[in-house]
Design goal:
Number of domains: 1
Strand content: 5-15%
Strand order of the largest sheet: 7-6-8
CATH architecture: Alpha Horseshoe
Structural class: mainly alpha
Number of strands: 9
Helix content: 40-55%
CATH topology: Serine Threonine Protein Phosphatase 5, Tetratricopeptide repeat
Number of helices: 21
Oligomer: single chain
Radius of gyration: 26 Å
Length: 508
């Protein structure tokens, strides 16, 4: 027994000694020395800006009839193919684990520190921007309980009614704008939109208030007027220097590249020959035809055809769009128009978040309604169109520059017809809005649902899910049905069926 027992006892004692030693230093040994235990608000805010501007549904470029594809799968946005409808849930799935979660963390850290009032205000303003884009796509969404899984253990957040979301977002903008204090610290260089400029953040907040206030015109005109006039009084973006834009380097990691340009380039235009576009995409004929019909100088800025591999041509007469009704590659595919690599596909170009052009078009409507007396609808329309043409130089530099003479000539023949009815003028204003806000198809989609303009003709493509009409909202992710079933069921019980034709609250 002694011969065989001692080695085992010895080994056991060594093991127990080792275990005791490990247990004694367990915390030290199992703590990552490189881990961060406290959030750095500036880092989180930068990431939230990146994520908020990158979260776009590019399929809406097709829906608003800027682009299309002969490929049924890639062409969902312009064809409404039933089999691809679940792609509409992408923004919802992306937002909550990214920008919404990140902003929750920023706000948690800075909210109670009076020296960081600007950080708190700017995070609130950016949070409204991110949430407004979400609710305008889906309607009722998790809002008041959003991103509280980690902090409060709420893993099945309730969906708030869009009416309540809008009321809170507008109040948030009001409070945040008033709390901004130029004497206090800012995010500084960590803020990639304004570099911490308090005055510009205030203009951005009131511009968002103007946008969201106008959303209410069909459901609560009184509140719409109240918020629109408050926004105008507060001061909205009217100068090119104040445009809210997200800057990109265009090199290195993908996060440093304009997300729209990167997506379009990788999905369709990487070959740069006009013929082997992977997903069969081109500009849609509706968009190109309108630009040609109105002799719009932006045509050569946004559109090119390839004369040979890598050789682009912006000649006005050569631009030609592709019909959205095609199901196979047309014989003239290689000679059709597609986005200009020097502007729309430029990786280092900024992503315009809110422009002076948008402010002016909204002011034109406000003037028509009698809510704004600072300028006439015609003056606002002209200012909006001019700003929209100038902003291509912000995007593409020399390649995007449109001369003052070109702008004035365009307005001479495409000015607002003030002799027309209010509805006819609304048609002109928001058709020009459609041209001028490109490529922000998501904002145009919201404006289209509210105003009915531009008066686009739907594509009744075989196998579409809408019965030949343009859809009104996006679908919730399937994961919500499985993991948040009770809240999901309450939302659709209140709002209506979870399909693309159910109208959200303000879309009447």
């Amino acid at each position: 027994m002694k011969k065989y027992f001692n080695p085992y006892i010895s080994a056991l004692l060594v093991g127990l000694a080792s275990f005791t030693s490990c247990k004694k230093n367990f915390t030290d040994l199992n703590t990552n020395p490189n881990a961060v235990t406290t959030s750095t608000p500036a880092y989180m805010f930068t990431k939230a800006e990146y994520d908020g501007t990158a979260n776009m549904l590019n399929l809406l470029l097709g829906t608003m009839q800027y682009t299309t594809s002969y490929n049924d799968v890639a062409g969902f946005g312009s064809k409404y193919i039933a089999s691809q409808v679940n792609t509409t849930s992408a923004s919802f799935s992306s937002a909550y684990p990214n920008e919404i979660n990140e902003l929750k963390e920023v706000i948690k850290v800075v909210k109670t520190d009076p020296t960081q009032v600007n950080l708190y205000a700017e995070a609130r303003i950016w949070r409204v921007y991110c949430f407004s884009r979400l609710t305008d796509l889906y309607g009722d969404i998790p809002y008041s309980q959003a991103a509280e899984g980690y902090t409060d253990g709420i893993f099945t957040p309730s969906y708030d009614a869009q009416k309540d979301i809008y009321a809170d977002m507008l109040n948030e903008l009001d409070q945040a704008a008033q709390s901004l204090d130029a004497s206090k610290t800012t995010f500084g260089a960590a803020d990639l939109i304004y570099g911490g400029n308090v005055s510009q953040w205030k203009k951005f907040a009131y511009s968002l208030m103007l946008r969201l206030g106008m959303r209410l015109t069909k459901v609560d005109a009184t509140s719409a007027q109240t918020w629109v006039t408050k926004a105008i009084s507060g001061g909205v973006i009217l100068q090119d220097a104040d445009v809210a834009k997200m800057s990109y380097k265009g090199a290195g990691q993908d996060i440093n590249k304009n997300p729209l340009a990167l997506n379009l380039y990788n999905s369709d235009y990487i070959a740069a020959n006009g013929n082997t576009n992977q997903e069969g995409g081109k500009y849609q004929d509706v968009f190109i035809n309108y630009l040609k019909q109105t002799k719009d100088p932006r045509l050569g800025v946004v559109s090119i055809v390839y004369t040979s591999a890598g050789v682009t041509d912006t000649t006005f007469a050569k631009q030609q769009g592709m019909p959205a009704t095609l199901s196979s590659k047309p014989a003239n595919f290689s000679s059709l128009s597609e986005p200009n690599p020097a502007t729309v596909l430029l990786m280092s170009s900024p992503r315009l978040v809110f422009t002076a052009a948008e402010s002016y078009f909204l002011l034109a409507e406000a003037a028509l309604r009698g809510w704004y007396t600072g300028a006439t609808a015609q003056q606002c329309y002209n200012n909006g169109t001019s700003a929209a043409m100038r902003q291509w130089a912000i995007i593409g530099g020399t390649a995007g520059t449109i001369s003052t003479n070109q702008i004035n000539t365009y307005l001479k023949y495409n000015g607002l017809n003030t002799a027309g009815s209010v509805d006819a003028q609304m048609n002109q204003i928001y058709t020009q809005f459609w041209v001028s806000i490109f490529p922000d198809a998501q904002e145009v989609f919201a404006s289209y649902r509210r105003t009915g303009y531009p008066a686009l003709t739907p594509n009744n493509y075989p196998g579409n899910i809408t019965g030949g009409v343009i859809f009104r909202r996006m679908l919730y992710p399937l994961s919500e049905q499985n993991l948040n079933a009770k809240s999901y069921a309450a939302a659709i019980s209140r709002q209506g069926a979870d399909n693309v034709l159910t109208r959200i609250w303000w879309d009447k």
